[in-house]
Amino acid sequence: MSLACIKLRISLLLLCLQLVGFSQRPAFDTALFYKHLITENLFTEQIAFARQIQNVHIASTILQDSMRLSISLAYTKMGNVDSSEKNLIAISATPGFSVPSSELYVSLLIVRKEYNRASIFLNSFTNAMPIYLKEAGTSIKMLQNEPTQPDTNVSAYAPALLEIKHKYENPPDHSALLAGIYSTILPGMGKLYLGYKEEALSAFIENIALGAQAAESYYKVGPKSVRFIVTGSLFGLFYGGNIWGSVALAKKQKRDHRKQIEYEIYNYYNTRIAEHIQ
């Protein structure tokens, strides 16, 4: 064991002893002191003190879950994703969190891609579900590429999430098959159908130019000439590539749309988490 590691363990041990001793003073306010650690961004001290609280209140499931959530958030602030996720998944399947804690919990689950755990938590609400939890349910469906359910309270969703939902429900409806057929009929037409005007014009000019050269070679020097074989092969290559490119572009358009939806959802919930961090 290195000297630096030994010093670190000794420092943490002394800190824990100080916290335990301090917490036993008559005038000590545990909640106030813990809030002070959070406010001052004393992450290591916060985690150590939270562990002490867990050790003292082993029988309290709610308190254990609250401390796990708090520790997970502290690790998130520190940029330690693995430790954050480890404490997050250690929380009970249906923790009895307050409204702010529930919002933070489901936000962390979504950005950590723990969709099944988040769904179990959402399904545990038998009474009227708060709007932010309905938002979370809709977000999970979008991330799992499932149909979104009609919601009479959808107008109460955050504007940013409403915009994402609208994009999700209105994806590009261009057909890869049609794009290929159009490109077969006229080079560049498939790309024009997909909305890429510059690429369509470029494909049209390239194929027309190569096709004209191939036709000229055929009529002037014959089908067995090297010139025709070269120009004809190039035309065939570009013509086929244009068809394949249009089909691939149609598929890419849909993939990019889905990736954009995912990015915007994660960004939305990261913003919600950041609100708890401040």
Sequence-ordered SSE layout with sheet pairings:
Layout: H1 3-23, H2 30-39, H3 43-56, H4 61-78, H5 81-89, H6 99-111, H7 115-123, H8 131-143, H9 159-169, H10 176-185, H11 189-194, H12 197-221, H13 226-277
Helix pairs in contact: 1-3, 3-4, 4-5, 6-8, 6-13, 7-8, 9-13, 10-13, 12-13
Explain what the structure shows.
The chain is mainly alpha-helical and 278 residues long. It folds into 2 domains: 10-19 and 30-171, Serine Threonine Protein Phosphatase 5, Tetratricopeptide repeat (Alpha Horseshoe); 176-264. Helix content is 76%, strand content 0%. The protein has 13 helices and no strands. The chain has helices spanning 3-23, 30-39, 43-56, 61-78, 81-89, 99-111, 115-123, 131-143, 159-169, 176-185, 189-194, 197-221, 226-277. Helix 3 (43-56) packs antiparallel against helix 4 (61-78) and helix 9 (159-169) packs antiparallel against helix 13 (226-277). The radius of gyration is 30 Å and the shape is elongated. Mean pLDDT is 83; it is low at 17-28.
Please sum up the structure shown.
76% of the residues lie in helices and 0% in strands.
- Beta-sheet strand percentage? under 5%
The first-to-last residue Cα distance is 37 Å
The quaternary state of the protein chains shown equals single chain
Large-scale geometry: elongated
| Poorly predicted runs of 5 or more residues | 17-28
Major β-sheet, in short? none
Structural class category: mainly alpha
Separate helix tally? 13
Q: Kindly state the mean pLDDT as a whole number?
A: 83
Number of strands: 0
Number of domains: 2
Instruction: Compute the CA-based radius of gyration.
Output: 30 Å
The helicity comes to over 70%
CATH domain fold name of the largest domain: Serine Threonine Protein Phosphatase 5, Tetratricopeptide repeat
CATH level 1 class label of the largest domain: Mainly Alpha
CATH-derived architecture of the largest domain: Alpha Horseshoe
- Helix-strand pattern: HHHHHHHHHHHHH
